[in-house]
Sequence to fold (453 residues):
Amino acid sequence: MCLAVPGKILSITDEDDALLRSARVSFGGIVKEISLAGVPEAKLGDYVIVHAGFALARLDEQEAQRVFTTLQQMEGSSR
Amino acid sequence: MKFVDEYRGKDAAARMAAAIAQVTTRPWTIMEICGGQTHAIVKYGVDRLLPDTITLIHGPGCPVCVTPVELIDKALEIAALPEVIFCSFGDMLRVPGSHSDLLAVKANGGDVRIVYAPLDAVKLAQRHPEKQVVFFAVGFETTAPATALAVLQASRLNITNFSMLVAHVRVPPAMEAILAAPHNQVQGFLAAGHVCTVMGYTEYEPLAQRYRTPIIVTGFEPLDILHGIYLCVKQLEAGRASVENQYARAVRREGSREAQQLISEVFEVTHRQWRGLGAITDSGLGLRERYAGFDTVRRFGAAAPGATTPTECISGLVLQGVKKPQECPAFGKRCTPEQPLGAPMVSTEGACAAYYRYRRSPPHSRATLQETKP
Ligand code: SF4
Fold:
């Protein structure tokens, strides 16, 4: 039920009312209309994590790398 | 897919597993809250990469599984009405009520439809003004903003033939119930990452302190889960108990203010009955008085509580992590996804369904991350 999937914003329908703002989001090629009411900061080309037609959060590219740098650091320090 | 594939690599998983083994000196018991994480653990064999001294127990994070049977019965009763289009997420269709399920109602001519988003149900109501459209709102805080938005839109557009059967539950009170239970074995938690995208994690800070239990906000891919376990074990070994965010690519400490505002505009905190677990104080969300016109129960009247037939389903024990699915005498015999006795066998987040799909045959390999096909 809490399954949420990352997708890329292809286009945005801007509305005066932030509650109605929506986007076409591609999930590996499958495109769906998604509400952006929860992520006013989301821009074209951003990746958002989507659940039940609602974008929950914008994905942070830098933070996404952190687990890999942590791995390298751990291995560096244990050698 | 970006933000998915890189967290499923065998090599990184093996390295993270080695790091876990290196910091583990004692036995530890860790619970993952969310059923989505349970499925990933069983599907990819994440538990089989861990040192034998680390036990993962599966938590109650399956909203479908904890929806009380009385509410399912209510849904079945309403879905059978000729004027109703009953909309639900696909997971709910096979969940057994006391005598039947939504799929059977549909087979008998009920207009039951699977929707992807709650807003789709509002659109259906616009297209079918002669019908009553009911949406079965099941889910945690992850789902609540989407259902709140549907109510708000229906309200703004003055749609009067739309209503919602609300079964929303909240995670932190359930975690506290687990920690406060006398037989509690949980020493550390992996908190549900997607719940935290909405709510943030400040609610967990007092819990971590009061029960001296580390809580790691964790994502859903195998590498996320291993990383969450690593951070949890490090805290446990050092005698620390704080909240840490493994899933920082999607979760900020304060969560999403916009999504929280949607929830609190439409819903208020209520007591809620959890199937298999009993009543938990403040563990649910209900419609606020100003949106009571969208409440399905008010619109159609409350059901007379039917007699619930006792079953051999031990879902309460499975949901608390006291028993593993295979320890249920009905597992795979009298209870299968085709003929389920309990919701955990049908939900995509139910632990019984995960074990049924991925764990009926012996493991092919112990050493590497391996996707098991159902
Ligand atoms: S295997 Fe079936 S009967 Fe047993 S606990 Fe799971 S859902 Fe219930």
About this structure: Strands of chain A lie at 5-13, 22-27, 30-35, 47-51, 54-58. The pocket of iron/sulfur cluster is lined by residues B 313-315, 318, 325, 328, 330-331, 335, 341-342, 344-345, 352 (CB under 6 Å). The longest helix of chain A spans residues 61-78. Chain A touches chain B at residues 1-6, 8, 18-19, 27-28, 32, 35, 37-40, 47, 49, 51-54, 56-57, 59-61, 63-64, 66-68, 70-71, 74-75, 78 (CB under 8 Å).
